[in-house]
Amino acid sequence: SDFIALEIYEGHLRLILDKGNGAVGLNSSINISDGVWHKVEAHFKPTYMELNVDDHIEDQPTHVGEKKFFDLSGYLFIGGVEVNKQARAVNQGAKNGDKSLEGCIQNVSVGETSLSIRDAQVTQGIKAECHWAYPCLKNPCVDGSRCLQEGRMKTSAEVRPSSLCPSGELHHRLQSLHQDHTAL
């Protein structure tokens, strides 16, 4: 069957289509790994593909194969690919085909059909609500220094203060953020 993937690569969406004659990819120029919700749409037909991120549309022709339809069978994977399918995903152009999404997804639909966690066949590692914190959105750094999110934020120890912010101010502000987060 043919292959379609939508992945996050280096903070940007990437749509990959393979109709059997080699993969074609479209990379979005919009960074979505910034801790805020984004509206994302992926549209594809045998002759073109389109990514829409926050109403910024990017598209390109596919020029892949002569077929006028996609032969899609099997499961739809959202947030990751089961282990025995990861090698195929990588071989067909998915740069993160061997990794699962670390983040949050909401309001998913395929065509006109809305999907929810109740529709999932496998829910390994999935939670019904978003449990990520993004302390950098609260601007914890001072004097023009830059905050860097490193994975899921639970404690102030997950940030390297020496390379990001003046240590005393950062530690104090992250401790406050951590205390606020644990009170929820």
Architecture per CATH nomenclature, i.e. the level-2 architecture of the largest domain: Sandwich
| Poorly predicted segments | 153-164, 166-184
Write the CATH fold name of the largest domain. Answer: Jelly Rolls
Average residue-wise pLDDT:
69
Secondary structure class reads: alpha+beta
- The number of domains: 2
Radius of gyration: 19 Å
- Rough outline: globular
- Order of SSEs, N→C? EEEEEEHEEHH
Cα-to-Cα separation, first versus last residue: 46 Å
Total strand segments: 8
InterPro entries: ConA-like_dom_sf, Laminin_G, Neurexin-related_CASP
Domain Laminin G: 1-130
Protein name: Chondroitin sulfate proteoglycan 4-like 4
Pfam families: Laminin_G_2 (PF02210)
Describe the structure.
This protein is α+β, with helices and mostly antiparallel strands. It folds into two domains: 3-119, Jelly Rolls (Sandwich), CATH 2.60.120; 135-182, no CATH class. Helix content is 16%, strand content 26%. The protein has three helices and eight strands. The protein has helices at residues 83-91, 161-164, 167-182; strands at 3-9, 12-18, 23-31, 40-45, 48-53, 56-61, 108-110, 113-115. The strands form three sheets. It has a three-stranded antiparallel β-sheet with strand order 1-2-3, with no helix packed on it. A three-stranded antiparallel β-sheet has the order 4-5-6, with no helix packed on it. A two-stranded antiparallel sheet has the order 7-8.
